[in-house]
Design brief:
- By secondary structure, this protein is α/β, with parallel strands linked by helices.
- The protein contains 14 helices and twelve strands.
- One of its GO terms (molecular function) is small GTPase binding.
- It comes from Dentipellis fragilis.
């Protein structure tokens, strides 16, 4: 029944009201469970991955652990884990004694079981003895990627700095942070950079380490040389380099460095510059704009080199790599016809035609890509191949017999086979990291000066 009054109301029979409520509840629960199922389907794998990754993180920052006893507490924490990838020990007081005890463990047979990728020891009162111990751990280390040593008590002892530089050069370290070590000064840089030959170091942080214009020649020599080819980020903020030294560094980037995409070099306002070295704010801003344009240039050229190298590999693999199997079917012969015609051309003409696909690459970069593309040992595993039943130890978990390629990739043991189109289909990478490893292996991760 409907009734109208001062306040309009809608009156329905009780059974009908209950039926409406039941239908609404059913729809609500159905949509809720659907949303939950969707959320679990999309979120659970990510949360599970994050959970598994976090199990390898040992965060003992700001525990007040000091000396050798503090290091033993760290070791006890490490050995209580099945694996450790990150070791965060910042803001303790381990000092030289604790650092030596920790590095002795990490260098031991038991410690080497832990493939640690990141170690943070910032603000730990570590001095030269601790740095020597770290150099021993770094020597030939292939697992550590990031090392943070800010705000410690290192000095510029020439012998220890040379040892540390040599250890970094033999390791696979990608990030080294030495900022806020004000006792380092020019003596550190004069011994560290000339001996640094790492092909893996990508980020170097040297802010607030009391550098003066005396360090500028060593910085310039390093960023001009091929030894800095892997370096993409350099921070020199908070030093007293001076305007002229900074201008010389920017000029070195302009003329000879195409790998840096981040260079922070804000001067320290100490008021100690001479009148002839002082400059107006407008001049400094202009220098910063020039530097910004140069870094953008490097980034743009690097992206173009990477893209062109990838395209060049794709077509070079198709045209330069010869199939091992004879082609029988008519359709396969038709597909092979263009390649057969290209193969009849002189080698110099073949390479010249392919070079037009990558005009930004230097001649030496293109040659490295050609050599890689024409080598059947660099082919990735053929996904069409059935797993082998061999019991050989070189058999992987997937059943494929593996071997190391000339550039460090994994390939199958069988020689290349099939048509050129099938070979071309096996030139892609399973992920972005694999592609970056290949670009680095053939020296195509950045622009390279030289004949085009």
């Amino acid at each position: 029944m409907f009734s109208y009054g001062a306040n309009v109301r809608l009156q329905l029979p009780v059974k009908r009201v209950n039926r409406v409520y039941s239908m609404a509840a059913t729809l609500f629960m159905s949509s809720t469970f659907h949303s939950l199922d969707k959320m679990l389907a999309t979120k659970q794998p990510r949360s599970l991955a994050l959970s598994l990754a976090s199990r390898g993180h040992v965060d003992c920052s700001d525990r007040g652990w000091a000396g050798a006893n503090g290091a033993r507490s760290v070791i006890e924490t490490i050995t209580g884990r099945r694996f450790v990838t990150r070791l965060l020990l910042g803001h303790n007081q381990l000092g030289d004694d604790g650092c030596e005890v920790l590095c002795d463990f990490l260098c031991s047979e038991e410690g080497q079981k832990y493939r640690i990728e990141e170690i943070s020891l910032n603000s730990n009162d570590i001095g030269d003895r601790g740095l020597r111990a770290l150099a021993r751990y770094l020597l030939g280390n292939t697992s550590l990627r990031d090392l943070f040593l800010q705000n410690n008590c290192f000095t510029a002892d020439p012998e220890i700095i040379s040892l540390f530089s040599a250890a970094v050069s033999t390791s696979c370290l990608q990030t080294l942070a030495m900022s806020a070590n004000r006792n380092l000064s020019d003596g550190f840089l004069s011994n560290f950079l000339p001996a640094l030959t790492s092909s893996h170091l990508e980020m170097l942080h040297l802010s607030a380490v009391a550098l003066t214009p005396l360090s500028a020649p060593y910085i310039i020599d390093y960023i001009r040389s091929p030894r800095s080819r892997s370096l993409t980020s350099l921070t020199l903020n908070g030093n007293s380099l001076g305007y002229r030294a900074i201008q010389a560094i920017i000029q070195a980037v302009q003329e000879d460095n195409y790998t840096l995409v981040k260079l922070e070099i804000t001067p320290h306002e100490s008021g100690e510059e001479s009148d002839e070295e002082s400059t107006s704010m407008s001049s400094w801003r202009f220098s910063q704009e020039v530097l910004k344009a140069l870094l953008w240039r490097n980034d743009d050229l690097a992206n173009r080199v990477k893209a062109e190298a990838t395209v060049l590999l794709k077509y070079s693999r198709l045209l330069l790599l010869k199939p091992k199997k004879a082609v029988d079917s008519d359709s396969a012969l038709a597909k092979e016809a263009p390649r057969q015609g290209f193969a009849k051309l002189p080698t110099e003409l073949q390479l010249d035609i392919l070079s037009s696909l990558a005009p930004t690459l230097s001649a030496t970069q293109r040659i490295r890509v050609f050599r890689y593309a024409s080598d059947s040992r660099t082919l990735p595993p053929d996904p069409r191949r059935l797993p082998s039943l061999s019991r050989d130890r070189s058999i992987s978990a997937t059943g494929l017999r593996l071997r190391r390629s000339p550039v460090g990739g994994i390939t199958d043991s069988a020689e290349s086979s099939g048509s050129a189109s099938q070979l071309g289909a096996r030139t892609l990478w399973p992920d972005v990291e694999a592609r970056l490893r290949w670009l680095k292996a053939v020296g195509c991760e950045a622009y390279e000066k030289g004949p085009r």
